Description:
single chain; 2 domains; alpha+beta; Metal Binding Protein, Guanine Nucleotide Exchange Factor, Chain A; 6-stranded mixed sheet; 6-stranded antiparallel sheet; Peptide Methionine Sulfoxide Reductase, Chain A
Amino acid sequence: MKKIYCLLLSLSLFTTTACGQNQPQHSQKTKKTTMENTIQKPENPYYSNTDTSKLVLSDAEWKKVLPPDLYEVARHADTERAFTGSMWKSETKGTYYCAACGNKLFRSQQKFVSSCGWPSFFEQDNPKSIWFRPDNSYGMQRVEALCSRCDSHLGHLFDDGPEPTGKRYCMNAVSLDFVPDSAEKAAQLKTVVLGGGCFWCVEAVYQNLNGVEKVVSGYAGGTVENPSYEEVCTGRTGAAEVVEITYNPNVTSLDEIYQVFFTVHDPTTLNRQGADVGTQYRSVIFYKNEDEKKEAQALIDALNFRNVYPSKIVTTLEPLKKFWAAEEYHQNYYANNANKPYCQMVVRPKVEKFEKVFKDRLKNKKTQ
């Protein structure tokens, strides 16, 4: 929270807005968010695809958390039989991790199909992810490859690989976890639901933010299950027009999404955005957990502290119980109806303002 607070205190004011109020200027520095685990292993509390800190565990501790076959290979340098499983010949694009601790080791473009019967790579993804030591066991002189995070045995390194390195990382398949690119990307995507007046406006803005994968217009809050647009327009359902934003936290962040939110709409008018009046047009952030709630509240507190707006922010923070997608004709509305009067007079100014303030964060940067 402290980082968010300090970030907002450093924002200068953006004064040329459609309704003439002060707005926070986009910070050029985007907060980086660490990707969450793409593989979940509840039985192994030491497993992480993001933590690179050194693991020092006793043999007994490793035996408790590793499957027997992996334990024998990783901790006792056993070797699995060649040509077991399909990993040795797989050409699927993705990422390979240490099966014992989750440390990232290889990418699929560093892999080649060899005739040895074990997964083979010509280069490691990070020069520090694997370390080596001499192995003179079984009367042979070899180079053992070990995970740099947990010191687990992975396999051996040979000098008979392809160009450009001439190396062959001969790995035990049981020592590797593989995540295909599609699954890895899906695992890291996150969603946030928020409302800032008519959802046509909010949808059109976020569709252009780099890192946003999908925006769906819909409804949230209220007492009616899966309400229709006509029901929401009465103002009697308690539901708000909102958008569900699916984003990649490695490209954008919740903090940046909130910055856009407080830039392109007026969070100080209660149940109103311009001529759109009613509780369905309220400024609202629907949070899924306490962390999201605290981050939103920290931003609001900082904006109020800086007196960025002439009035206090009235944006409500409400727990997300259910999101309902709106009718199909509401989806991608601005792109499909850009010449209609409402889009020209209301939606377009918000999109243009967003493009001006966040010009460095557009999916397709416009030439200035």
